[in-house]
Amino acid sequence: MTATMNFAPSIPVSAAADMDYCREAIRTGSRSFHMASKLLPAKVRDPALALYAFCRIADDAVDEGDDKAHAVLSLRDRLDMVYQGSPRNACADRAFARIIEEFDMPRALPEALLEGLAWDAVGRRYDTFSGIMDYSARVAAAVGAMMCVLMRVRDADALARACDLGLAMQLSNIARDVGEDARAGRIYLPLDWLRDEGIDLEAFLADPKPTPEVCGLVKRLLDEATRLYGRSAAGVSLLPLACRPGIHAARLIYCGIGGAVARNGHDSVSVRAHTGAGQKIGWLGRALLDTGLHLMRPLPATLHAAPAPEVAFLVAAAAQPRGSFRRSSAVLSVLAQLEAKDRALTTARLQGLAFPRG
C-alpha cells in the first residue's frame, strides 16, 4: 500500500519550489542529463529531475564528503523516512517522496543505490569485471530501471535494455575518471585486468601515469560500454513515443564521453575528457532524427536479449508494483560495518574534545 505523505502543518511546503531546487541541482551538477532531459515530456521530465537530484545529492555526499560512513547512514535514514511517507524537510527528499507515491516505485531500486554507495564508503575494490558490473548495476542501472518506472514501463525487455544503458553510462564514467579516482585513492578497474597487464596497484595509486597498459585497460572498458550502448538502443522502441528522443539523447551524450576519452588516446589519467555544449546540442538533434528513422526499422533481435546477470534482480524488482520490503542481509552487513566505523569516528572526536592536545 502506498504511504500518504505527512508534512508537519507548520512547515510551508511548495511542490513547485521543490522542483525548482531539483532543476537547479541537476543543471549545475549533471549537465549531460540536464541537456538530455530537455527532450522528455514534462510529465516525465520533472519526476526524472527529482529522481536524479535525490540520487546525485546522495552520491556527492558519499563521494566528496569527509565522513562517508555518516553520509551513507544518513541516506539509509532518509530512504526509511521517504518510504514511511514522512520525508526529511528538504527539497530533494520531498520531491523524491512525491514520485515514490505517484509512481509506486519499488523500494528495491533506490535500495540498490544505497548498497552501491555503501560499497564506496567502505572502499570496496573489485577483482573482476563482473564485480565492476555489480557495482555499476547498483549506482547506475538502478537509476535506469527507476526511469522506466517513471515512464510507467514495466516490460521486462525494456527494463533489461534500460539497465544496459545504465551500465554503459557508468563504465563511461569510470573510464573518464581513472586518473581522478586514482589520485583520490580509488580504483574501479578490475584488479585481475591490472594483474594481467603487470600493473602494480599500489604503485599506480601512489603515482598514476598513462602508461600504454593503463590506456589499454581504459580502451577495454570502453569497448564493453560500446557493446552495452548497442544493446540498449533496442529498448528505446518500447518506451512511450514522446520519451524516446530524450532517452536516445542521453545515450548519445554519455556515449560521447567515451568518444572524447578515445580521442585523447585513452589517456584519462593526465587529462579528463570533456564534451562541449555544441556537441551536446548536436546529439539532441541527432536523437530527434534517429527516433524518426527507428520508427521505420524492424525491431532488432537484441531487444529480447536476457538481462546481464548483474542486473537481473533490478529487472525483477521493477517489473512489480511496490510491495512488502525487507532490507537484504548483504545491505545490513555493509551498513553494520559503516555503523561501527561511524561510532569509532564519533568516539575519537569526543576523546579529542575531552583531551585536547597541547
TrEMBL record:
Signal peptide: none annotated. Belongs to the phytoene/squalene synthase family. Pathway: Carotenoid biosynthesis; phytoene biosynthesis. PROSITE patterns: SQUALEN_PHYTOEN_SYN_1 (PS01044), SQUALEN_PHYTOEN_SYN_2 (PS01045). Its cofactor is ATP. It comes from Rhodobacter ferrooxidans. GO terms for molecular function: geranylgeranyl diphosphate synthase activity; squalene synthase [NAD(P)H] activity. GO terms for biological process: carotenoid biosynthetic process. The keyword Signal does not apply. This is Squalene/phytoene synthase. SUPFAM superfamilies: Terpenoid synthases (SSF48576). Keywords: Carotenoid biosynthesis, Transferase. Transmembrane segments: none annotated. InterPro entries: Isoprenoid_synthase_dom_sf (IPR008949), Squ/phyt_synthse (IPR002060), Squalene/phytoene_synthase_CS (IPR019845), Trans_IPPS_bact-type (IPR044843), Trans_IPPS_HH (IPR033904). Pfam families: SQS_PSY (PF00494).
